[in-house]
Write a structure and sequence with these properties.
Urease, subunit C, domain 1; TIM Barrel; seven-stranded mixed sheet; seven-stranded parallel sheet; 16 strands; binds N-(iminomethyl)-L-glutamic acid; binds zinc ion
Length: 414
């Protein structure tokens, strides 16, 4: 059964083939087709182009001039957690700085939750994301911090997405506070081994991540982070890094040196960090998480400077109970445009094409690609930041099976 999506006022394809025909730089970057149509069959895009050239299909759906975009790729989230830290947020708004110490509160609540409680919490968060246009999500562990609790978090995350990340090195848990080296040994030995019980292909984790932050007594130093990342890489895992969130530090350069798929936060960057990121273009993406700066009252990173230096810049939500309990990519886009010097086109590209690339995904709207699309209740992608805070965008249900927004216990398709 094929479906013709017609009446698309503006289609963002992220495809340079369409982009070459455009005069406007934003339209060129996004590969925009105006008055477009898409044919979808069995959850796969069959045809993309101007509506006037569209082939016949079994069914038609008229989108009434609305804009269609690739579904957002949220490449940095911590959705597997229980408990509430809203009081910590309130304290930050009146001046208490964030240092990662509150993570232990979420660890205690998460350890105490049952599998079903965690599963229900993740399902609700995934549904919330889909209702805001996110169709692909990465999910990290990191609120278990025992071998069993980390594995449990990853297995639950896997019910929703294949893009799972082991963050056993989130912070040193309280029971290891005065023997940090033992915890690093646990992460690099038994925990990584347990991820490989049935081999790399069957591992519940696709990536190994570390919170490298010498400014927090809770997270990991550059030396510790190197040991953890090298151990992950030696076992065949791709890497991601939390780096340079609370101050200047070694995280960004370590990530670039080790070929991590992404280094995330990048709030405090030196000239040398920017040089390293620019040299790592095509390998290491800098993922900016402006919801974190918003929720921690931190300075926003200068995305304009990064893009002008040639760095691959992605945007993600970092949905988590501590630094940003927002699952909204439109919110991240609006902040990036208003506060970080990105154009609306760059911000949308960063939250789709570049965040997708950091997960090994091709986020172009082309024939043969999965029909991972979102629709904006407005005529152009500009409305994402122009109408900030208005719930205008949602995932487009053109896939064959029910999606999490409609059946909260199901996972995202990729
Ligand atoms: N910075 C480290 N981890 C999370 C926050 C975790 C928390 O505070 O619960 C982040 O990405 O911001
Ligand atoms: Zn994070």
């Amino acid at each position: 059964m094929s479906l013709l999506l017609n009446g698309i006022g503006e289609l963002v394809t992220n495809d340079p083939v369409w982009g070459e025909r455009q005069g406007d730089p934003g339209d060129r970057l996004l590969g925009i087709i105006r008055d477009a149509a898409v044919v979808v069959s069995g959850g796969i895009i069959e045809w993309v182009g101007p509506a006037a050239d569209a082939p016949a299909a079994d069914e038609r759906r008229d989108l009434g001039g609305r804009a269609v975009i690739p579904g957002f790729v949220d490449s940095h989230t911590h959705l597997v957690f229980a408990g509430d830290r809203s009081a910590e947020f309130a304290a930050r708004m009146t001046g208490t700085p964030y240092d990662g110490g509150g993570i232990k509160v979420s660890v205690a609540a998460t350890r105490a939750a049952s599998d079903d409680e965690l599963r229900t919490l993740v399902a609700g968060r995934v549904a919330e994301m889909r209702a805001q246009g996110t169709t692909t999500v990465e999910i990290k562990s990191g609120y278990g911090l025992t071998l069993e609790d980390e594995l449990r978090a990853l297995r639950i995350a896997r019910e929703f997405t294949p893009h799972t990340t082991f963050l056993g090195a989130h912070v040193v848990p309280p029971e290891y506070a005065d023997r940090r080296a033992d915890y690093v040994d646990l992460v690099t030995g038994p925990m990584l081994d347990a991820l490989l019980t049935d081999g790399l292909e069957a591992s519940p984790a696709a990536y190994v991540d570390v919170f490298c932050e010498p400014h927090s007594g809770h997270a990991f130093t550059g030396e510790e982070a190197r040991v953890i990342l090298e151990a992950g890489r030696a076992r065949g895992f791709a890497l991601r890094v939390h780096g340079n969130q609370l101050g200047h530090g070694p995280g960004v350069q370590l990530a670039c040196e080790l070929g991590a798929a992404s280094v995330d936060h990048c709030t405090y960057l030196s000239d040398a960090d920017i040089d390293a990121l620019a040299a790592a273009r095509g390998a290491t993406v800098a993922t900016l998480l402006p919801g974190v700066e918003f929720s921690t009252r931190s300075p926003y990173p200068d995305a304009r400077r990064l893009i002008d230096a040639g760095v691959d810049v992605a945007l993600a939500s970092d949905c988590n109970p501590g630094t940003c309990y927002s699952s909204s990519i439109p919110f991240a886009i609006a902040l990036a445009v208003r506060e970080m010097g990105m154009t609306p086109a760059e911000a949308l590209h960063a939250a789709t094409a570049v965040s997708g690339r950091s997960l090994g995904l091709d986020r172009r709207v082309v024939a043969g690609a999965p029909a991972e699309l979102a629709v904006i209740d407005g005529p152009s992608h500009l409305h994402l930041s122009y109408r900030a805070g208005v719930p205008l965008v949602r995932a487009l249900d053109v896939l064959p099976s029910p999606m999490p927004g409609h059946a909260p216990t199901r996972g995202m398709p990729n």
